[in-house]
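new request in #modeling-help
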Amino acid sequence: MAATKDPRPCSIADTLALVGEKYSLLVVREVCLGNGRFDQLVRNIGAPRDVLAARLRRLVDAGILTKRAYSERPQRFEYRPTQAGLELEPVLMTLKEWGDRHLRNGVDLPMVVEHICGNELVPVVTCAACGDPVHHEDLTAHPQAEGWTVKGPSAA
Amino acid sequence: MAATKDPRPCSIADTLALVGEKYSLLVVREVCLGNGRFDQLVRNIGAPRDVLAARLRRLVDAGILTKRAYSERPQRFEYRPTQAGLELEPVLMTLKEWGDRHLRNGVDLPMVVEHICGNELVPVVTCAACGDPVHHEDLTAHPQAEGWTVKGPSAA
DNA sequence: CTCGTGAGTAGGAAATCCAAACTCACCATA
DNA sequence: TATGGTGAGTTTGGATTTCCTACTCACGAG
């Protein structure tokens, strides 16, 4: 019998394995703000320098960030988001929205994002097919992986 | 002068401080699937039991989960999402979407979610005001916190 | 020549994580 | 009445990570 220990295969888990370590998503936040220099990242995120260096290496390896010199002699680098990195912004926006509402009751927000339409951005997750906002009770999960049901491994 | 070490005040950071530890969002995933028993969580997530116990305590304290006995004599418990917990599902769906696209090229997905409209759910983050999908280049950030600009502390 | 800045490395203490074993209460069966 | 099984954790001790401070190295400014 196979190893009885592997968890549910899941893109959420895989994504978090990449960007779920402490500070990683905050790095993406800062870099999306256009703020890609090492010392700026240290200041704005509050991460230890060595941990930040490790995160940056990992995010570059994963194709989420690129590292480019904006000056040779003195060598100076800047990290910028790739397309994949930019596409993490919706994740950041939904996290921000949750925090704004549940941790701050919607008042005294530390940051407001303006949408090009002129309004303050309030992100809503919708269904691409019908356009309606997504609510828990409208969803049904269908595991596709061999041997897995919603409840767990198929024997269950 | 104040401590020069505090990072940018940010709801994303605050939210991650709550649910950003390893396994926490996977706990929310399982619990939203209706899968709230300790041993099931251990199997489906693959977390060490002690770490899982710590995460559950924290999530209950944060008001994201509740713990309820579904049987006295033998005492048996089940964790369920609160309203705040359910509202993390959009975050999970955007993470899933990112992973499905960038880590699996959209093929061979381990889980498909069906929306009540009958279609496979492809979550899109939109602006509540105008309804358009959110793209990086349409956003402008406006920090509100004392002494902070996009670049960093106001002196910068 | 000395100071300051950017982009890291180095070293060791402190905190976390992990796997496996253990507990405790109960139920089933034989 | 022993034997085993399940659920829900706690304990233990070692392996990893994090954290913090300091240090480096290259340069440019005064």
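bot summary: The two ends of chain B are 15 Å apart (CA to CA).
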